[in-house]
């Protein structure tokens, strides 16, 4: 099962890099890439599927629906953002079950107060550590194969010491991976894997609150997993912006796809052509 595959990758010798995915096209492109894992960004889904900013407006149903589309195009393990779990412990339990139903390999939950905000925005708040510990316990009881990733946003609210204390509690509650959001210096980045007794995730957000850091540094610090949530949607924004600029310049060749055939091939066109061809004779005889 994909949760077991993901666990083996995270516990392996190499730094695992999971680019951001948010729809069928981005999933197909990652499927055809060398990356072994994908990360469904709640912010990217909120923007693309819902058309709203990442401030807790996307629902569990909308995120699960996006995960189902992504899984249709992706056989690799999928880590999925589940925000705060969309309610109390009962909602968290259902959220994990719904994510697993569509084939998600890891469910990421965070300890922000609902409605949450993007981890690199101001004015965040976190719930009591006991409240979120109960959510992690419920998530672990609900899961069968999926990993549970516990994210804390306490660094921005109470400082790094509290974030690390929370991380320790979440490990005890059963979290498989810890995600301390938005460290603000290289020293803080290095401190997290050194002080957390579990595999640790790093969130790669260029131009966010965290300073630039190389993948080599993250590997040396001891991180197991790096997510790049903006890699997919950010690339799409740049590409669409460039295509619109080309069209405005009357550049008719720079405003579209490299090739319609290549685009549809990435989405599985050869498979569907084989299916249609295999039954063509029977349809003609009917």
TrEMBL record:
Highest taxon in the source lineage: Bacteria
According to the UniProt entry, the coiled-coil residues are none
Query: What keywords tag this UniProt record?
Result: Lyase
GO MF, one example: 2,3-dimethylmalate lyase activity
Which Pfam family, just one, is annotated for this protein? Answer: PEP_mutase
Database matches in InterPro entries: ICL/PEPM, Isocitrate_lyase_ph_CS, Pyrv/PenolPyrv_kinase-like_dom, Pyrv_kinase-like_dom_sf
Q: Has keyword Nucleotide-binding?
A: no
Keyword DNA-binding in annotation = no
EC no. given is: 4.1.3.32
What is the protein name given in its UniProt record? Isocitrate lyase family protein
